[in-house]
Design a protein that fits this description.
This protein is an all-alpha fold. The chain contains one helix and no strands. The chain has one helix at 26-78. The longest helix has 53 residues, at 26-78.
Length: 80
């Protein structure tokens, strides 16, 4: 005897489904994915900012060293 369990067709929704308050809509899933992408981009941007700041500090230190050695050399040449 064949028993139809309803797997082949969509079943009507029950009136009192206990999972309804926890079920996400398509818009909520899309919003969560967009938020996740934004968080990843924010972390990448923060990392780029940190790396840029480190290289800026290295460049400033190099320019300071060049200026300091040039001034020191000029002062030593000015002495008789």
């Amino acid at each position: 005897m064949f028993v139809d369990h309803g797997f082949g067709r969509s079943q009507p929704r029950r009136g009192a489904d206990v999972n309804d308050p926890m079920r996400l809509s398509i818009m909520q899933v899309i919003a969560a994915l967009v938020a996740a992408v934004c968080v990843v981009i924010a972390f990448i941007a923060a990392g780029i900012g940190v790396i840029s700041a480190v290289f800026m500090l290295l460049a400033m230190a190099a320019l300071g060293f060049i200026a300091w050695t040039a001034i020191r050399r000029a002062m030593n040449q000015a002495k008789p």
